[in-house]
Amino acid sequence: MDATLSLLRDEASRPFLRAGRAAWHYARGKFRWDPVYFALLRSGALPDSGTLLDLGCGQGILLSLLAAAKERYARGEWPAQWPAPPARLAMRGYDLRRRSIRAGSVALDGVAALECRDIRGLALPSADAVVILDVLYHVRYADQERVLDAVAHALRPGGVLILRESNSGGGLAHGLQRGAEIVAQLWHGRLAPKLWYRDAAQWRNLLERRGMTVTAQPMNGDTPFANVLFFARRR
What does the alpha-carbon distance between residue 104 and residue 112 come to, in Å, rounded to a whole number? Predict the structure, then answer.
């Protein structure tokens, strides 16, 4: 991580100190090891204005990163080769975990609105962008489709859904990822965790059936996994 990204990571992590050292360390670790957050900034896929919904937002680390990016860009402290980050984007996040929402609400007070809600069956407000990172494989196939229906209904024409999921057709890489997720679930006390993965072609088909134009790219960074990042824009 070069100096510019390290400073951005520091600034995006700092608000979580208000929620405790554990929340701060978690944010720093995600920014350091998970490539998806900086990849979203480099992609230029997020709109400059409107409403962003983060479904399964956790403690809101993506929203904190976007807020920090906006401030650094305004100060002229931004990589010259990167597109400008969103400047006038209202941000809302939803997650089922009360502890994460409490931590994020303390950290991002006045920056983003976080709610403890189950995204299955949630009526979403109109949005210009929706982000769902590593969430849908935790819910049953029928619920995955229900969430995608709600997103397609909420997105304004030209709006974008950014979705990351593990590709179940990814062979050994997916097997390693599935195993790591099961271990993580057991560590958190969830016995016999069930996971609902799909392969990349199935995800693309689900999105295209809902009137979206889809592009995709691998999103693993230095991890030995099989993640795919989908950009699905409503026609």
Answer: 9
Contact 88, 165 (CB under 8 A): no
Query: Are the CB atoms for 89 and 48 separated by under 8 Å?
Result: yes
CA torsion, ordered 29, 31, 34, 36, to nearest 10 deg: 160
Q: Which residue is listed with tokens 């965790």?
A: 193
Q: pTM here?
A: 0.94
Percent of the chain at pLDDT exceeding 70 = 98
pLDDT (0 to 100) of residue 1? 60
First CA to last CA distance, the chain: 36
CATH 3.50.4.10 at 3-196+210-234, yes or no: no
Closest by CA position to 103, among listed 190, 13, 9, 11 = 13
More confident residue, 125 or 193: 125
Q: What is the pLDDT of residue 163?
A: 98
d(CA 135, CA 33): 18
